[in-house]
């Protein structure tokens, strides 16, 4: 793909643009770096934080024994959702840094996302030239949702970056057809799936489409490099799956409450999914990115990326509840849209090439304005909320409850904030969303039986999520009418379960 003449003849402009995009993309992600990780899916981030702390405390002798034991216990009780790559890296870095700093895993997520940006530009310029590649990179780095989500202590930024590198490896292998790139492409694919299993929808369907439409099944079955790529792609996660299911048993519970095929027949599901796309990926850009894939000149790469888009659709159908309610499930689609926008931009640039000397300043100004506005939106979102007071609040509440006190609680993030900063583990009471999800899965909810089971042997019932309490009138009436409040502020109530009022 030929680059527009103003970039082809002046490579320093390309390098200047890349330095600017990567520099500003990094800067907006480093803004407000030390704020506690409560700005984006706090439950998921604190789950990882508890695991990382347990790994870090496991061999520490400079902390009280009870603290070390509790940290390890909290880690082990979290279970296994995916390989704890981010947690292990963070725990190791805590040791090197001499402390448990939650901005460290945030830095890792940012680093991985920026590496994914490098792969995206390398691939996009192969598909759409330098100018198109810059447009795709700008979307990847400055989409407001991505600016926030790519900082989170989750495996998703790493997985998304590895998916992009897998696509790049796929293109390089297709071009070179060497054993070296076969090994590289297979390893990148395997690492993406290993980071988080849902990556298989994107990379698996991409490879399948490329092989079937680019090679043909018969030829592919005789190709030893194809077999090598396939083996390297599945081996890492296969070993982890065997360990998690048949050895530790920790993965078995992770497959429950995931698959809800009855939602396929509900029009509201599709409207919610569309709304999620609109609020994260921007629906108009999503459509342009999808349609533009059909314009890719290389038929094999076109088939591979169309397969990845098909994988996104199957991903949503396999996990319909999560794709329509959890915005970070859209993260792997960001590079797909970015690559499509790169191709669309290249088509536009080529159609105005004769007048590019006049149009270039206007186009550059518009794109620069869009990038700066998006970067500012990310900054405003991060500035809007300050979570620095949260650790002290939860530490004080932990002191109020007392370490080791058996309690049940309707508290934010299933008690993770209290567990992390307050060092108090409470049995979480179900939210109304959990009750509705259980009903969707066919589970019956008996309030009286559930209340008796969960409060049996407990000392306190703690409520900090007042809004959620109001949404469960049965629970609110039960607590207020039957149990005395032993501590009350504007932020929490503590009910004494040991002294129920007599009817």
Describe, in short, the structure shown.
This protein has 503 residues and is mainly alpha-helical.
Query: What is the domain total for the residues?
Result: 3
Helicity range:
55-70%
Shape: globular
Beta percentage is under 5%
Number of strands: 5
Task: Characterise the protein shown here.
- Strand 4 (485-488) and strand 5 form a beta hairpin.
- The N and C termini lie far apart (81 Å).
- With 503 residues, the protein is mainly α.
- The protein has 24 helices and five strands.
- The chain is globular.
- The protein folds into three domains: 10-33 and 107-384, no CATH class; 42-105, no CATH class; 390-496, no CATH class.
Write the layout of secondary structure elements.
Elements (H helix, E strand, L loop, with lengths): L4 H4 L2 H20 L11 H16 L7 H13 L7 H13 L5 H40 L1 H6 L6 H21 L2 H17 L3 H16 L2 H5 L2 H24 L19 H14 L2 H10 L6 H20 L1 H6 L7 H19 L4 H29 L5 H12 L5 E4 L5 H6 L5 E2 L3 H9 L6 H9 L4 E4 L2 H5 L2 H10 L2 E4 L4 E4 L7
Parallel strand pairs: 1-2, 1-3
Antiparallel strand pairs: 3-5, 4-5
